[in-house]
Design brief:
The chain is α+β, with helices and mostly antiparallel strands. It has helices at about 10-50, 55-75, 80-95, 125-135; strands at about 100, 115-120, 145-155, 160-174.
Amino acid sequence: MLKQIPVKKEYLLIAATLILLLVSYRFAYKNTIEAWALNKELIIKLAQSNDLSYQPGYLERQEANLNKIVNSYKADTALFRSNIISTIAAIAEKENVKLTGVPVQDAAYHTDHFIVEKLEFEGDFFSLVKVADQLQNTQNIGIMRCEDFKTISDRSGTNEVKKLVLEIYLEILR
C-alpha cells in the first residue's frame, strides 16, 4: 500500500510526525499548558492582593468566642460575699448539700488578673456532683478551676463518722 503512493517516504515520515505532535498536544500538552497559565495568573493575583489572611468574618467570630470565655470568668468581686455566695448556697440547699467552707480572703489565691475562691461542700456523692455541675453551668459566679473530693473522719467518742467533702476553687476575673 505504501509502495503505491507516489510520495517519498521522507515526506510521509514528516507528515506522520506532525500528526502525532498534533494529537499529543491535544490530549497531553494542552491541559498542562492551561494549568501552568492558570497557576501563573493566580500567583500574580495573589501578589497583587495585599493580605488574604485578613478575614473580617473569622476575626469577628473569634472575638465573639473569646468574649464568651472571658464573660464566664467575670463576677463582681465587690459583691462576691453577698450575691454570689447566696446564689451558691441556694444551689447547694436545693440538692441537700451543706456549704461548710466560705471563702476567706487569702492573698495566696489572688493574682493581678484573677481571684481564686475556695468553697467547701458536705453531702453525699451524687448530690455533690449535681452541685458541681450546676455551679459549672451557672453564669456570673466565675468558673470552676478545680474540684476535689475528700473523705474526712470525725472521731467523737466511740463512733467514727466519715464525711464526704467537696472543695471547689472558683476563678474570678478582676
